[in-house]
Design a protein that fits this description.
Belongs to the class-II pyridoxal-phosphate-dependent aminotransferase family. Histidinol-phosphate aminotransferase subfamily. The chain is 39% helix and 15% strand. It is built from 13 helices and 11 strands. Bound molecules: 4'-deoxy-4'-aminopyridoxal-5'-phosphate.
Length: 358
């Protein structure tokens, strides 16, 4: 049996090493994982209570359209429910966008380097990926605009960019959208937006209301701390959202996930606390990198990318032996590692380990 030729070369997704495996392999009792940009403070207690309540109903299919959650998010964002689509994580929204919009040969513009799931789903749909190098670790929007051709279908912008953590500003995105043909979809992935209070950071909703070709991606996996429940969403023009909805699987988000997200959305205090702690953690790591003479990219989300000035894989292995799992293996950045901002205690541990390793 032959699979589609365009998927033959795709790697099977390799998640970062799980904590339990590292403990077992290296005989360590205390291991922390700062590799997947999860929330070190877990989820809101309100979300956990909602999960416990919803367990009584897990034998019943969920509301596939996630109506209650959609209404709540729409109200919070100041959009209509017809402008929102939920997915099993924003990963699935990326998949659904590719599935609904890409024909074989359609060109897609992405940054190099950026979140790998754009390329993954473009390739599955037989689309063409045009990669535009980052400039100082940041999306080069003028160069991405210059790469647009009559074959361009989607431009994917990751803001802040994973793995570098850098952002493009409201003005830059507005300027880009004003020049790109309206037939080109622009996907703005804002997975980490709730961490950011910088006034230059784009107001995606405001832009989306002016540009019907703009689709935003958001998630409950990061600041809301619900990564394992797989709840993410897209926000866009009702026509675009309807097309995405047409390819959606019937029950793509779970009851438990929807209930948790609905409760998490209402706990502003938890979110504010996580945002403040993240800011302190970023400052702590930045100061440590400065002391160690390690250049880091400006970071806006809950992770920071730093140049350890030696092969990142070696530093990854050495950190692992100290019980700290970080992220290496970024092809464009062979001497950089990406570190998730942890709790104060975890941040102190990662700094101490780096000091010993380097
Ligand atoms: N976009 C970006 C930029 C991400 O970093 C991630 C998570 N690593 C995702 C999307 C996907 O997140 P999820 O599917 O958990 O919503």
């Amino acid at each position: 049996m032959q699979p589609k030729p365009n998927i033959v070369h795709l790697p099977v997704y390799q998640p970062g090493k799980p904590i339990e495996e590292v403990k077992r392999e290296l005989g360590l009792s205390d291991v922390i994982k700062l590799a997947s940009n999860e929330n070190p403070f877990g989820a809101s207690p309100k979300a956990i209570e909602a999960v416990q309540r919803e367990l009584a109903n897990i034998s019943i299919y969920p509301d596939g359209a996630a109506v209650d959650l959609t209404n709540a998010v729409a109200e919070k964002l100041g959009v209509t429910p017809e402008q929102i689509i939920f997915g099993a994580g924003s990963d699935e929204v990326i998949l659904m966008i590719a599935r609904a919009f890409l024909l074989p040969g359609d060109e897609n513009i992405t940054a190099d380097q950026t979140f790998p799931q754009y390329r993954h789903n473009i390739e599955i749909e037989n689309g063409v990926v045009i990669e535009v190098p980052l400039k100082d670790g940041t999306h080069d929007l003028p160069a991405m605009l210059a790469a647009v051709t009559p074959k361009t279908k989607i431009v994917w912008i990751c803001n802040p960019n994973n793995p570098t953590g850098t952002i493009v500003s409201h003005e830059e995105v507005d300027n880009f959208l004003s020049k790109v043909p309206s037939s080109v979809m622009v996907v703005l992935d804002e997975a980490y937006c709730e961490y950011i209070d910088d006034p230059a950071f784009p107001d995606g909703i405001e832009l989306m209301k002016r540009y019907p070709n703009l689709v935003l991606l958001r998630t409950f996996s990061k600041i809301y701390g619900l990564a394992s429940l797989r709840v993410g969403y897209g926000v866009g023009h009702p026509d675009v959202i309807r097309s995405i909805n047409q390819v959606r699987e019937p029950f793509n988000t779970s009851r438990v996930g929807q209930a948790a997200a609905l409760a998490a959305l209402q706990d502003d205090e938890f979110i504010a606390r996580c945002r403040a702690a993240n800011k302190e953690g970023l400052a702590m790591l930045r100061a440590a990198f400065e002391r160690l003479g390690l250049p880091a990219f400006p970071a806006y989300g809950n992770f920071i990318m730093v140049d350890v000035k030696r092969p990142a894989g070696e530093v990854f292995d050495a950190m692992l032996r100290k019980g700290v799992i970080i992220r290496a293996g970024h092809k464009k950045y062979p001497t950089h590692v990406r570190i998730t901002i942890g709790s104060a205690e975890q941040n102190a541990k990662v700094i101490a380990a780096l000091e010993e390793v380097l």
